[in-house]
Amino acid sequence: MAKKCGLAMLLHKIFVSEKQPTVEEAGKRIGMKYDTLYSRLNNRVPFRPEEVRDLLRVCGDVRVAAWLLEGSRFMAVERPDEDIVSGRSEGVRRLHKSATRTVIEAVDLLREVERAISDDKIDHNDLREISEALADAEQALGALRAHINARAPVNRGG
Hints:
The protein has 158 residues and is an all-alpha fold. The chain folds into two domains: 8-69; 82-151. Helices cover 69% and strands 0% of the residues. Helix 2 crosses helix 3 (34-41). It starts with 5 loop residues before the first helix and ends in a 7-residue tail after the last helix.
């Protein structure tokens, strides 16, 4: 069997290991047979662009979008749910959760930097860990910005 590409590995992890959703559920939602989807997850058959788009919609996991955008000047950010925009109490809780996640990711980033510099040198492993923590913090901050912008009244000027 051919070596799995990064996207197939990531989707395999999400659908098979984490079951968010399961392979069966994802296949049903996009109109693909279990065997067909599983062969793509195992890299026996490459994904078509339309299938990736459909899986991204069904999966709802920002890691897939982040993988697709990796190395570009773009960043994956989750769109806020409608209830956040409408101001219902669940939406307010989600906004608070998004802000809290931003702080936690920033603390994790600081922790990685502190760990890396503790021996007065930063090696390639340290840089990788810092970079991953930074990407998580950027994504959390971008999602928070999207939530806030969705709640902000539109400024029509004047």
